[in-house]
Write a structure and sequence with these properties.
Lipocalin, nine-stranded antiparallel sheet, 3 domains, alpha+beta, 451 residues
Amino acid sequence: MTDRHDPVEAAFEALRAETEVLDTTRPMRTVADRRRGRRRRGVILVAAAASLPLVAGVSFLISNQEPAVVAGPPDTTVAPSTESSTSAGDTALLAESSWTLLSGSGPSGEVPIVDGWPITLSFSPDTLVGTAACNGYGANYSINDGSVTIGAFGSDDMGCDGPVMESESTYLAAFADVDHVEVDGDELTLTGPSTEMTFVRNTPVPVADLVDQLWLLDTLIEGENGSSATGDPAILLLDQDGTVRGGTGCRSLSGEYVISGHQVRFTSFRADGDCPSLLREQDGLVVNVLGDGFTVDVDGSLLVVTSRGNETLVYRAITEAEIAATPGSPVRSDAELLEGSSWILTQGEGQNGQIGIVEGSEPRITFTTSDTLSGSLSCNDFTAGLTIDGRDLSILLLPQRTQVCGISTTEAEAAFEAALADVAEFALEDDGQVLIVTGGETELIFNPVAG
């Protein structure tokens, strides 16, 4: 059993004492989250310590984040030194420093570095922690005249895509082989019998430019795809006292933050409110980037916030008066978004199984008014009464105009008509480009009618 006074446990006991569990009105697992290939364990828990698997024969509790350098401003990041650790003979040159892996190899071969999933390493006086591409890891350590001894060691157990996990496992095998450290200015070298890894010192967070400035979300970037922010003005404000407030365009955000190595991280994080379907993707991306811990780059009036997986938010500096004069894009209800829209069935299933779709005569629906639906079953047209309450949907089919159709078309029409009568709710997904209607054994998937 780990000694309660173990330096690793003691270092994170202080962090746990000030940590709050994330409080939201709904789970924060989102479409954007799934696209990243990361398998979260429920909602995001920012700065919460987790029990880690046994590594090197010792089990202990450790946070999956880098050591907190400062709980809010001022910035106390240690300035780069030009001395070498081999001559210093202690940990003074490493304490409170933060590094990112440039290249390396170990017992399992060359460490592959995946774009958007950096490998980091940060030091406090007697503990080290970092991110091994996907998961957080940490250990206690000591240095004597350049020789480093790494003690109790653990890592988190979140899953990521295959290439990211390969990067992590190769790196951790190399890290376990390390027995020597050397600092040369802004370069850190770790070596061992089968290992050599080179890190570069991370640029400190530009605290003076970042805090007490109101930022307005302008652009969201996921991989190579970018989009403009919509909805209500989505702000971000990191106060001097270590608190944060902001928004996603449809929900408000609040909490507390620390500057941890070269990153900003939340120690508590709360999201309040609800979002229409059209804004859920944006909401999820903002929450993911901010909740995962992020690096910042301030260039004049622009703030670039980046999280792992190449997810990026671009903000611009703004004043309270400018915010008041900046109307948000209209955030309409899902029912309002549907009114006047036309959709074509691409896939359907009902009580009698798969719904047949005849090419060139696909079923169509149009939300003519807020309480009227019309369209084509395939061969025959129809009209129906419509009731929408939030995301609840009910359709009352009216007598149809009967035409003589082929047998297969008649069967498909009957199946589609029965499915419409069975629906109970709907959802708009992919920025309003997919309409999914469900109920009982029914699931109907529509795409917008072109033009």
